[in-house]
Design a protein that fits this description.
Layout lengths: L9 H10 L6 E6 L2 E6 L2 E7 L2 E5 L2 H7 L6 E6 L2 E8 L8 H15 L17
Antiparallel strand pairs: 1-2, 2-3, 3-4, 4-6, 5-6
């Protein structure tokens, strides 16, 4: 299945890099050509086009979804990523709100056990 993601938005990625928490345990790396932030191998925030997304526990998701402009993250139409919420675009004018949500996301995802890297798939000899 071919996935048609929007093109990465340079200004969104720059803003994301400014507001994402800093720390030796936080790794920034691309995900499908977009910026993403990981802790212990788990993604806690990312961008997709002009969207900024955070992964939140249920109580925080419920509160955030009451904000005008917040929505469930659907990287592919009809396929929600249930723990991920798109932040309101208006929050770009209030970076502290974005930092606060990212901090909540980081705090929650840090409680997950570290991801164990899977060994590379074996290739068949032809």
């Amino acid at each position: 299945m071919k996935m048609n993601f929007p093109k990465a938005d340079v200004s969104t990625q720059r803003f994301f890099e400014e507001v994402v928490p800093k720390g030796s345990n936080i790794k920034l790396r691309p995900m499908f050509g977009h910026a993403a932030a990981f802790v212990n191998g788990h993604m806690f925030s990312c961008t997709l086009g002009k969207q900024i997304v955070v992964r939140l526990k249920e109580e925080d998701r419920t509160l955030l979804l009451h904000e005008d402009g917040a929505s469930f993250f659907e990287p592919i139409k009809g396929r929600k990523m249930k723990e991920y919420i798109v932040l309101p675009k208006s929050w770009r004018q209030e970076p502290e709100k974005v930092r606060d949500m990212m901090s909540k996301s980081l705090a929650w995802v840090t409680t997950f056990p570290p991801k164990v890297k899977k060994p590379p798939a074996r290739t068949r000899n032809r």
